[in-house]
Amino acid sequence: EPEVTQTPSHQVTQMGQEVILRCVPISNHLYFYWYRQILGQKVEFLVSFYNNEISEKSEIFDDQFSVERPDGSNFTLKIRSTKLEDSAMYFCASSGTGLNTGELFFGEGSRLTVL
Amino acid sequence: GESVGLHLPTLSVQEGDNSIINCAYSNSASDYFIWYKQESGKGPQFIIDIRSNMDKRQGQRVTVLLNKTVKHLSLQIAATQPGDSAVYFCAENDGGSQGNLIFGKGTKLSVKP
């Protein structure tokens, strides 16, 4: 069964450092998303991406965050200068037809710990 | 602000019983609702969805009910099994958004053997 894969599974970094989280969406999907979940809290939308550009982003997704699809298979989330409050589980998701016509498939997440 | 919330944070049921997990939403413009299951250390897993032009949708052992009048969503799990133990989230597409799912806080379902 096709799945969304994410790396690394866990990253520990110092405050102020740059972090790149990587995702390989399901191969024929066209819509890509990043969500995050702070420990014990609900899953929160960060950004959606389609046709090589951001479709929507939340207020969490400030100028410290960026996304990129550098090639035909990877979708990355970069945090330029990490803060303590960026510590969370980051989930990548993809969809073949967009949210309103199909489900989002989530990866297993990348846990980011900022010290 | 408008949000999705859950009535009960935890639910404990006996194996074989039916489970009902409830959710309230407040964005009347949302037209697509999803239930996700999240097991410990894993990402959300799609269970079932429903669009606002429907009141009920059934899957395998699961049923989602949508009451637009009172903005209420529920997930019914028939013959609950130990493997159903997880946190369940309802989510709505924020006012018809194409990508922004608003998740509720989650209900932890524990199934006792």
What does this structure look like?
The complex is a heterodimer of chains A (115) and B (113). With 115 residues, chain A is mostly beta strands. Chain A contains no helices and eleven strands. In chain A, the strands form two sheets. In chain A, strands 2, 4, 5, 6, 9, 10 and 11 form a seven-stranded mixed sheet that branches. In chain A, strands 1-3-8-7 form a four-stranded antiparallel sheet, with no helix packed on it. In chain A, β4 and β5 form a beta hairpin. The mean pLDDT of chain A is 92. Helices cover 0% and strands 53% of the residues of chain B. In chain B, the strands form two sheets. In chain B, strands 2, 4, 5, 9, 10 and 11 form a six-stranded mixed sheet that branches. In chain B, strands 1-3-8-7-6 form a five-stranded antiparallel sheet, with no helix packed on it. The mean pLDDT of chain B is 88. Chain B has strands spanning 4-5, 10-14, 19-25, 32-38, 45-51, 56-58, 62-67, 72-77, 86-93, 101-103, 107-112. By secondary structure, chain B is mostly beta strands. The interface between A and B is medium-sized, with 27 and 26 residues.
Shape of chain A: globular
Beta-sheet strand percentage of chain B? over 45%
Low-confidence stretches of chain A: none
Structural class of chain A: mainly beta
Portion in helices of chain B: under 10%
Largest sheet of chain B: 6 strands, mixed
The N- to C-terminal Cα distance of chain B equals: 40 Å
Assign a percent range to the helix content of chain A.
Answer: under 10%
Largest sheet of chain A: 7 strands, mixed
Q: Report the portion of residues of chain A in β strands.
A: over 45%
Show unreliable segments of chain B.
Answer: none
Radius of gyration of chain A: 13 Å
What is the terminal separation of chain A in angstroms? 37 Å
The rough form of chain B would be described as globular
Rg over C-alpha atoms of chain B, rounded to the nearest angstrom: 13 Å
Number of helical segments with 4 or more residues of chain B: 0
Give the overall pLDDT of chain A as a whole number: 92
| Class of secondary structure makeup of chain B | mainly beta
